[in-house]
Amino acid sequence: MEEPRRDVEKILLSVVAPVYNEEENLEPLHARLTGVLEGLGCQYEVLFVDDGSTDSSLAVMRELAAGDPRVGFISFTRNFGHESATSAGLDFASGDAVVIMDADLQDPPEVIVDMVEAWRNGSDVVYGRRRQRAKEPALKRASSFLYYRLMRRIAEVDLPVDTGDFRLMDRSIVEFFKRLREKNRFVRAQVAWLTSNTAEVLYDRDPRHAGKTKYNFYKRLKLSIDSIVSFSTFPLRLMSVIGLIIFVLSLIGALVVFIQKLAFGIAIPGYTFLVISLFFLGGTQMLFLGIVGEYMARVYSEVKDRPLYLVASVGGIEERKPRGA
Ligand code: UDP
Ligand code: MG
């Protein structure tokens, strides 16, 4: 089923890459992308989103844009985070299909060829799925494994396993995506929420070309909490269920003690039980308040309705004002 819209010769393909301090990676990335994209034989644009880099990334982007009319960039006023940078790229991209990839060459540009092929065959979203994670530390692998299984269980979206942000999206999906303006973003889950007309392409994730990862344990934890709270109300429900169980248990306990005293004259046991139950209840209450707080904090940030990002400068692309900025 050949849709004219998906005829590679006639389309514009956008490649979006969020960039935070990747000065040494941009040139090699551009070179490899050029090789691959020229081979595809379509029109294309490469869009770098400078997420408030403090190194010379922006200068490198300017240079690349000056030397290659197909390169454009957007530069933020400060670091707004990976998810916001990706969203800005999708706001500004004008391609019939848009590829999102990291700027550190962990996502091999050659995979784009397979993605375009799957898109031509009718899929609206084509995920890059990592073949193996063997090169990553055991702790990270274990936590990713747990996280994905947990999300699949409790979230309202079916998050594809072992995929990152590396993917191709059809224009129609990009337009839908632009309508999701929530502040606590998790692009991966948001896209999964949009459509089930997806395909996946297997690839080997390379090590970083240069520099080090911009994610630490804390950032990753924040992202996972964000994604769970944004896509699931299960924690809230869990609270009521556990609260109910504790309530019923305490009633039974009270009854048992009461009957023991009345029927058998057994004295009520000492303070150990008291202290333990005190701590137990105090602990659960605080935990649950914390969970309510997580949801409240997000309601608060949605209500404030601040822009997702602020653009300081753009180059190499026609100046358009994206939604939400
Ligand atoms: N990135 C970004 N803003 C940030 C952190 C990261 O735009 O605040 C970009 C970064 O430059 C890279 C991509 O997001 O292109 C993925 O980041 P990284 O490689 O550090 O993550 P990892 O691959 O280690 O998960
Ligand atoms: Mg990386």
Structural class, from secondary structure content?
A: alpha/beta
* CATH superfamily membership of the largest domain: Spore Coat Polysaccharide Biosynthesis Protein SpsA, Chain A
In total, how many domains does the architecture comprise? Answer: 2
Number of strands: 8
Query: Which percent range describes the beta-strand content?
Result: 15-25%
CATH topology of the largest domain, by name, is Spore Coat Polysaccharide Biosynthesis Protein SpsA, Chain A
- Radius of gyration, in angstroms, nearest whole number: 25 Å
Listing every helix as H and every strand as E from the N terminus to the C terminus, the arrangement reads EHEHEHEHEHEHHEHHHE
Q: What's the level 1 CATH class of the largest domain? A: Alpha Beta
> In what order do the strands lie side by side in the largest sheet?
7-5-6-4-1-2-3-8
Query: What is the CATH architecture annotation of the largest domain?
Result: Alpha-Beta Complex
Low-pLDDT segments: none
By DSSP (H or I, 4+ residues per run), the number of helices equals 10
Small molecules (ligands, ions, cofactors) in the structure: uridine-5'-diphosphate, magnesium ion
Mean pLDDT equals 89
